[in-house]
Specification:
Length: 137
Amino acid sequence: MRSGNPARVVIGAALAAGILLIASLIFLNRKPSRAQVAHESQAAVEAFLKAGVEPAFAEFGEFKELTGEGFHKPVWNIQGYDYITLPRQARFAKKTVDLTIHVTEGSPGQTNIGTPRLEGTIAPYQGATIFVSHPRF
């Protein structure tokens, strides 16, 4: 019984292993979907509000939950800078506040979701705006 050419078998196995390695790297380094980025960023904002570290929200009592769903992407993008906007309502023990969450691209080298940051003040009719950056956006 004759076996195949050993050199061809080794080359074939190495080629198959290389293709598998490249496919794995592409899969692991792919960017998450915008929906996944929105979900992960909302979770970071919820944790931020539950921690009660932002004094501007103290008068509203204990944070209960964020309500709302979906996100908006920019209408146009002149500078190649990507972001999404999540319209939400933050329900506290004493009041519900309209909340706009802007999720921006993370800085080069950033590995974790950034600490959410309140922008400006909480206006009676406009609500509050929180910015958070996502490293894989």
